[in-house]
Amino acid sequence: MVVKEYTVRLREPYDKQMEFIRSTAKRKVVRAGRRGGKTVGIAILAVEKFLAGKRVLYAAPTIEQLETFWREVKAALRELTDIGLFKKNENEHYIEREGTENRLKAKTAFNADTLRGDYAQLLIFDEWQLCNEDAWTDVGAPMLLDYDGDAVFIYTPPSLRSSGISKARDPLHAAKLFQRAEEDESGRWEVFHFRSHDNPHISEAALRELTLDMSAEAYRREIEAEDDEENPNQLIYKEFNSVSQIIPPVPIGSDWPHYVGHDFGGANPAALFFTQNPETGYFYAYKEYRPISSVSISEQVQAFLDITKGRVVLRRMGGSHQEMGERAAYAAHGWHIMEPKKKNQRVTARIDAVKAMMEKNQIYVFNTCHRLIGELSTYLWKNDTDGIITDDIRNKNAYHLMDCLAYIMSDFTPETADSAKRVLRYPSFAGSKR
Fold first, then answer.
1. 3-state SS record for the chain
2. What CATH topology corresponds to 15-229?
3. What does CATH list as the number for 242-430?
4. pLDDT digit string (tens) for 61-90?
């Protein structure tokens, strides 16, 4: 009897990769730096499980990330797919043993809806920090029930640069999962942490190029793969309930007034657009303006006119007292912006006014405002050298939409209706918060 041997061409994992590949935990959370080898490592694990007869599903929020994983598994199994032992489908990104449930599939998925329609014995989420949490809670966890399957969550600590493409309700949900898993004592969960520097296959020159334009904070997050260890009390807008006050877009009435908050900057201008339901008094942030590159004031004004076309804008507000020149420049192009009232000139006074409105459930955010949601979830007071919370804002210059929010919303006075009235008037689509 002639026995033919075929080669599976897996890369040799380095120590950090080997740790999570060989782990027997049912749930693994991997926090890794950019170019740390996390996708290559997870491809090794996926191929091994597939060859052991398992059904493997890999999910990533972008096609670019999916293609990296797909190239690795294709290369590893090429000899077996070339001879027809396994069937490969390039369009749908799967390799399978025909007539069986044994399959390895890669798909783009970032929330519950995009993950539906499949099941697995090993479920892998890559770039988990960019995915919506419901991909796991609503679909991922239930799909593993039939076979008591395993799950792996891979992420790099998110930065403000990624908040605009994230589908997460809470941009810090991956870090919170890592923390809960780290505290687990059942043995069901295990965590793994490695930095970009830990990858012996990345050259120092490549790493220097990767980090050349990074801030110290971005370097700590994306290269050192360090999560923030925030005290919940550091969150500036604790009063904002992301579960009930982030909502799908609702129809905006033709008679609803509109308001715009502005933050000036030659390279980083920002604007935030609100409308108010005249019957309830509730405000809705429905559009954010954050160009990715420097644009002229005339171009900005044209964008503002396009956003508010056919709408009645009652107030535009922004900038400090000293920024009268900036306001004059916008006025020269037909977009008049008011200076905040004297009582709201201080940053903390503006923040306190917005917090009061949030406490009374008067501010809602459409879930299409991804950057705004990201800033709300990471807008923190700074700690001093003794770890005491101060009145200074951490990395304040990065939070342009928070300034827009405070400039315009601090101009309003929260309603003083009693709690019973507020509950009766609470919009049905926004959930319940008392």
1. CCCCCCCCCCCCCCHHHHHHHHCCCCEEEEEECCCCCHHHHHHHHHHHHHHCCCEEEEEECCHHHHHHHHHHHHHHHHHHHHCCCCEEECCCCEEECCCCCCEEEEEECCCHHHHCCCCCCEEEECCHHHCCCHHHHHHHHHHCHHHCCEEEEEECCCCHHHHCCCCCCCCCHHHHHHHHHHHCCCCCEEEEEECHHHCCCCCHHHHHHHHCCCCHHHHHHHCCCCCCCCCHHHECCCCCCHHHHEECCCCCCCCCCEEEEEECCCCCCEEEEEEECCCCCCEEEEEEECCCCCCCHHHHHHHHHHHCCCCCEEEEEECCHHHHHHHHHHHCCCCCCECCCHHHCCHHHHHHHHHHHHHCCCEEEECCCHHHHHHHHHCEEEECCCCCEEEEECCHHHCHHHHHHHHHHCCCCCCCCCHHHHHHHCCHHHCCCC
2. Rossmann fold (3.40.50)
3. 3.30.420.280
4. 988 889 999 999 999 999 999 999 999 999
